[in-house]
Predict the 3D structure of the following.
Amino acid sequence: MNPIRFVLAAVFALAFAGAAQAHPHVWVTMKTDLVYGADGTVTGVRHAWSFDDMFSAFATQGLEAKVKGEFTRDELKPLAKVNVESLKEYDFFTYATADGKKTELTDPLPEYWLDYKDQVLTLNFTLPFKTPVKAKELKVEVYDPSIFVDFAFNKEQPVQLVGAPAQCKLETELPREMTMAEGQALSRIPADQVNTSMMWGAQFANKILVKCP
Amino acid sequence: MRWLVRQSAWAQCLVFIGGFLLVVGVIDVAFAQPFGMTRPAPSPEYGGVTGWILAKQAEFYRMLSGAIRAAKADGSAAWTLLGISFTYGIFHAAGPGHGKAVISSYLVANDETWRRGIVLSFASAALQAVTAVAVVGIGAVLLGATAKAMGNTVRVIEIVSYALIMLIGLRLLWVKGRAFIASLRPARSNAKASADHHDHAHGHDHDHAHGHVHGPACTHHGHHHHGHTHGHSHDHCDEASAWSHGHGPEPAELTGRHWWKRGLAAIVAVGLRPCSGAVIVLVFALAQGLFWIGVASTFVMALGTAITVAIIATVAVGARGLAGRMAQAKPGTGMILVRGLETAAAGVLVVFGALLLTGYIVSERLMGF
């Protein structure tokens, strides 16, 4: 083997050794509403996040329940509190910009809860904007930069505008799944050739775009 | 390659150390992402092969839950589960918990053989499976602990393991760093001794029998602790054999006390922290009343992980061997290259341990929420 190729291969192997550190351990299927006030401003982002069955089983492990395998909202109250408090550290994975400027969301409203149905946990909470937003273009993105959590909008009804002025148009962008052909093409790239034309990471973000002319 | 050989030892040294730090830089950038979370972070960009591996890993991990459910209804689906677990292990093998980077840095700094790298990889993966089963077995099965309690347990294990990584790094940095400084001073007896060794090594350069390569590339602790003698029967440098002479491990080499003592610390440092995925899978299997199938899955996963880590460790040892052989071509001064590389690798371990310990690098959050 050509030594320089070998060193390059070694460098590459070590590099991806580091880069491939994270991968999702939690999957969240989202349903997100943008809530509007009477004056046509956006007051907050209302999330309903359903966790995957493995994480749901993990999170409910050891919790007391009257009926085995069923959890009521009350029984899940302590867990909901832990979830919401830990999510604070990660800004609730929700990032908003109004006309290109970062807009702050505050701590969730006190009415938040967890539901347990078909062995799946769903966390319901609303993040109010610090000040209600009126913008020509409001963008809300949901993603985990460390991709420990994989977020994806619910396919049937991903996003709803609640009480929005009639002229506002909603666009949503779902993270695209990699096609088989793309996967194969990627696997054929020689190890010592870093391909930059096939960047696909941005697809991890779920984007909500509201335009109000 | 020829270009590199023509350069001075200093230039070669810089090239290698630069390359090594570049790799570490890449690793660090990948790690640093959770840290960037407090700021409005940009969308993650994962390109090429990395992205593909990431996608595959996630795909197989997701398949695990379906396979466990299927195994509940039909026992024969357990085999499918084991197959998926194995593939997942191969693709996953990520996170400092799995310690690819740590094991590689350790092997490079310590100038271990590729066989030892493989043994280290398998032993640490096995230990990792054992800790995952122990945490869930004792925690969830016996004590009925909550996910939060198990997460806290893992947190404590993590701190011990990261501290150990840093300690191993500091010890290596002390030993290798001193050797590096010594090699920068030709007047010192150390460098002179190395130059003498070179003569010995040179004769065997291209057609040496395994176990007789004692070139300047061989920088075992033994050199430092035993007054630069070269009579180690079981602690010799055989990276060259990783290339051309494939033969079975010598029992003396694998059972030598020296290396087991060193190696054990590395196995514990890397293997102590259970993989978050395994813990979640075990709890899920338990919830389905299939704890033992979960245990089997965990061990098969570890087997897959060990294979990936072993391959990368072998590559790291090979690259280190290449640097060593280039050093042999440069009597005396070539030593700087090797010592520099070892010192850099030891430094990487220290930085790694420190960053993990202080939370600047987050490996895998078990309690994401």
